[in-house]
Amino acid sequence: MVDEASRPLGVAATVVLLRDGAAGLEVLLLERPRSRGSFAGAWVFPGGALDPEDYGAVELDEEDAARRAAVRETREETALEVADNELIPVAVWSPPAQAPKRMRTWFYYAAAPAAGVLTLAADELIDFRWIRPADALDAHSAGKLELIPPTWVTLEGLTKARNTFDALNWAKSTPVEHRHTRIASTRSTLLWEGDVAYLDDTLLDMEGARHRLEISDLPWLYLKS
Description:
Elements: E1 10-21, E2 24-31, E3 43-44, E4 47-49, H1 62-78, E5 88-94, E6 103-111, E7 127-131, H2 133-141, H3 149-158, H4 164-173, E8 177-180, E9 182-183, E10 189-191, E11 211-214, E12 221-224
Parallel strand pairs: 1-6, 5-8
Antiparallel strand pairs: 1-2, 1-4, 2-3, 2-7, 5-6, 9-10, 10-11, 11-12
C-alpha cells in the first residue's frame, strides 16, 4: 500500500487581491467550472501550480519561484497585473495525506491594481465577484457559495480588517504561518499544529488547545486558542 503522506508535494501559489469597496474591504473570488478541473464548482482566489520556468535559469528558491507563479497565474486567470515585490506572504498550506492532488501552496496578499480590466480565462473560470469576507462566509453558511478550507480560513481572518491598509499592514507585521493539515479519522475535522488532538484523535473531545475547523455541518466552525 502506498503511504499517501510520502507522495511528493507539488508547489502552487495563490493571490488574495484586496480592494476597498463602499462597505469595506473586498476580496476577489473566482468560480471554477463544476464539470472539470481542480476544486470544481468552488470559489477560489487566483492561483495555480508552479511551472518549471517560474524557477528561472538560475533555479530560484521555492518562495521566489512562487512569487513568479503568483504573478503569472493572476495575469493568466484575470488579465490583472500585480508586481512580485507587492506580494506579501501570509501562509503556506500543506494538504492532508488524503488529498487527491497534493500541492503545498503559498498564499499572498496584494492590493488590487488600480488599472486594468478583469477578464476571466474562459477555459478555467466561469464567474467572479468582489465580495466582503464576512458576506462570502455568510453565503457559504447558507449553501450559496462553495469554498474550500484554505479559502474559508483566509476569509475568516480577513473579517478582522476594516480596509486594505489594515490587511496589508497586518500581513507585513505577522510571521508567515505554516499549516500542515491533518484530517481526523473519526469525524470531519481539520487539525493543525497547536491543537490538543493534532497527533491523537482520541483527544478530540478533551479540554485543551484548539486549532481546528469543523466542517461536518454548515456553518463551519473555526476554533483557534
